[in-house]
Amino acid sequence: MDVAVIDAGGANFGSVCHALQRLGARPRIVRDAEGLAGAARVLLPGVGAAGEGMRRLQAQGLVAPLRALRVPLLGICLGMQLLFEASEEGAVDGLGLLPGRVRRLAGGPGLRVPHMGWNTLDPVSASPLLDGIAAGAAAYFVHGYAAEVTEDCVAACSHGERFAALVQRGKVAGAQFHPERSAAVGARLLDNFLQWNPT
Predict the structure, then answer these.
(1) Where in the sequence numbering do the catalytic residues fall?
(2) What is the pLDDT of residues 116-161, one digit of tens each?
(3) Euclidean distance between CA atoms 143 and 104, whole angstroms
(4) Could you tell me the pTM of the whole model?
(5) How many whole angstroms separate alpha carbon 13 and alpha carbon 21?
(6) Residue pair 40/3 in contact by the 8 Å Cβ criterion
(7) CA nearest to 176, candidates 128, 135, 198, 144
(8) Of the CATH numbers 3.40.50.150, 3.40.50.880, 3.40.190.10, 2.60.40.1180, which one belongs to the domain with range 2-195?
(9) Rounded to whole angstroms, how far apart are CA atoms 83 and 62?
(10) Does residue 88 sit in helix, strand or coil?
């Protein structure tokens, strides 16, 4: 399967490509709209700040094509946050593919922000993306901002407050955690995404 992996400036896109290759997919790095042509799946990985990520997508001419995609799209970490309407981080508008606003994690006593490390997933609603991933399975997170738990959330996580760890609406999905760094759980999520055929 041919998978377009967008280079939105994050250092994690190389490891995402390797994770896809281990699953038998053919990833190709995309830096402009033409690179999306013919892709069966699109991944939007990212690390860093929302404003910088959106500016890069704008400069690459990818904002409108991503909004018009007709194939499954998975955002990872910052890539997931950019799927939403807006982010408090830099007061930036996102792609608007998912309703809602990304907010800074509040933290609390003994809780560091950014949230870094392994944490457990709590399934919220059924999704093919969760096939074979048990409740309480651990995934690896690195983030200081997060989306709220809404009707699009299929798995949540807690770090002082509950937030969306995995979201899905139609052909658009997002993982706040890093599947490429989440061992068997992450590999299963990516494989589920490759097999996913949303209507």
Answers:
(1) 77, 178, 180
(2) 999 999 999 999 999 999 999 999 999 999 999 999 999 999 999 9
(3) 9
(4) 0.96
(5) 12
(6) yes
(7) 144
(8) 3.40.50.880
(9) 13
(10) coil
